[in-house]
Amino acid sequence: MDFSFLIILAIGAVALFLMSSRQRKAQREQLSFRDNLQPGQRVMTGSGMYGTVVEVDGDEVTLESTPGNESVWIKAAIARLVEPPVDEETEVDEDAEDDVEWRDEPGAIPPGRIDVPDDLSSLQPPRDDEGPDTKKSQQ
């Protein structure tokens, strides 16, 4: 046998071992996740349905998708835990104090906020959606 053939086989065996160990680790993490499901957690199923865990009974999980709408799923169908959205801090508008004067008047429009063209040449002509269909009348 050729020595290079043995090296290729050894590299293939090592790669196969490393890939299978990663898969086993991912399977253990998924199993641990599903075993630790608790009521109140928001989850997503493998089919994409979002719900809140109501009850865990053995291999069955009861999810509530909307208030009062419960369905029973097997644990293997739960794909992942959904984290609640993080509130992003809104940037403080430095000009906010300048706009206070116009806000006090009801119906007032802030200065410089509306751009009205001086002429009507840039506007599109009105569409005649209610008129007869010209394609049908030509046939």
UniProtKB/TrEMBL annotation:
Keywords: Cell membrane, Membrane, Protein transport, Translocation, Transmembrane, Transmembrane helix, Transport
Chief location category: membrane
Key word Transmembrane present: yes
Membrane topology per record: Single-pass membrane protein
Alphabetized Pfam families for the sequence: YajC
SMART domains: YajC (SM01323)
Region: Disordered, residue numbers: 85-139
InterPro entries referenced in this protein's UniProt entry, alphabetically: Preprotein_translocase_YajC
GO biological process, one term: protein transport
Subcellular location: Cell membrane
Compositional bias segments (type: Basic and acidic residues): 126-139
Biased composition (Acidic residues): 85-102
Similarity field: Belongs to the YajC family.
Name the record gives this protein: Preprotein translocase subunit YajC
Organism whose genome encodes this protein: Cellulomonas hominis
